[in-house]
Write a structure and sequence with these properties.
Layout: E1 7-11, H1 20-30, E2 34-39, H2 42-54, E3 59-63, H3 69-83, E4 88-91, H4 106-134, E5 137-142, H5 146-149, H6 155-175, E6 180-187, H7 193-196, H8 200-209, H9 218-229, E7 240-243
Parallel strand pairs: 1-2, 1-4, 2-3, 4-5, 5-6, 6-7
Helix pairs in contact: 1-2, 1-9, 3-4, 4-6
The structure holds nicotinamide-adenine-dinucleotide.
The site of nicotinamide-adenine-dinucleotide has 29 residues, from α1, α4 and α7.
């Protein structure tokens, strides 16, 4: 198994049934990792932890917000108390609050930036405290093709995900010599609750932009998260891998 004995913390993995974080939790667990699932919504996080355990893995869930550094610090402390180390951090939690720039409120801007970008900073900082001591660690950040291409109606979201890409590269440059790798995934359109809320017209416009003419699945993203979390990617750091059916090229 690729992650035998390793310990992973995954944020925003509580969307039971559909989310990308859930698929990543199940995938990393199937390769031997012990999983801590954290989410705003703890009842769904507990259901995902239960799913991991029913599949023969080890997991537990905790509640909190990535936007609060104290919560991130507590999650890392609890994981280390329980399993003695932290090998993998997957910064997956993310939200959208779409609007055109002229109509976008400060609240819409701040909410998205504080979850999607400051949340990644908070969890990275909390995890690095432990990974720095271990002199090893792997950080996988969930960006988006919108952070590369920009998208009308998503100034806040695109800016946050562009920021995640820059933060990933900076983390890679600052901590590479300490044995810590940081990489990002830039999903295109993936079949999740986030994309289910799109109108049929919007979906058909999106399909026009995708060379493969189909949406991706959470499992497509989870496969790349496994690659970036494991020794299969041992000489990769600071990269952004699009999982988008060719959309952003
Ligand atoms: N679905 C897509 O097509 C797509 C495309 C590109 C990027 N992404 C990114 O992938 C990630 C997962 O997306 P998804 O579609 O599975 O989303 P989702 O909404 O299904 O899941 C996101 C999870 O994050 C949790 N969350 C939200 N705010 C939080 C906070 N402050 N603290 C802790 N948890 C919080 C939610 O409760 C939810 O369980 C996100 O970062 C998203 O931006 C998704």
């Amino acid at each position: 198994m690729l992650l035998e004995g390793e310990v992973a913390l995954i944020t925003g993995a509580g969307r039971n049934g559909k989310g990308i974080g859930r698929s990543i939790a199940l995938k990393l667990a199937s390769e031997g990792a012990k999983i801590c699932i954290v989410d705003y919504n703890v009842s769904d996080a507990e259901l995902v932890a239960k799913e991991v355990m029913e599949a023969g893995g080890e997991a537990f869930a905790m509640q909190g917000s990535v936007a609060e550094f104290d919560h991130c610090e507590k999650w890392v402390d609890e994981v280390v108390k329980k399993w003695g180390k932290l090998d993998i951090l997957v910064n997956n939690a993310g939200i959208t609050r779409d609007n055109l720039i002229l109509k976008m409120s400060d609240q819409e801007w701040d909410m998205v930036l504080s979850t999607n970008l400051k949340g990644v900073f908070n969890c990275t900082k909390a995890a690095l405290n432990q990974m720095f001591k271990q002199r090893s660690g792997k950080i996988v950040n969930m960006a988006s093709v919108m952070g590369i291409m920009g998208n009308p109606g998503q100034a806040n979201y695109s800016a946050s995900k562009g920021g995640v890409i820059a933060l990933t590269k900076t983390t890679a440059k600052e901590y590479g010599k300490r044995g810590i790798r940081a990489n990002a995934i830039a999903p295109g359109f993936i079949q999740t609750t986030m994309t289910e809320e799109m109108t049929e017209e919007a979906k058909s416009k999106v399909l026009d932009m995708i060379p493969m003419k189909t949406l991706g699945t959470p499992d497509d993203v989870a496969n790349v998260a496994l690659f970036l979390s494991s020794s299969l990617s041992s000489y990769l750091t600071g990269v952004v891998i699009p999982v988008d059916g060719g959309m952003a090229m």
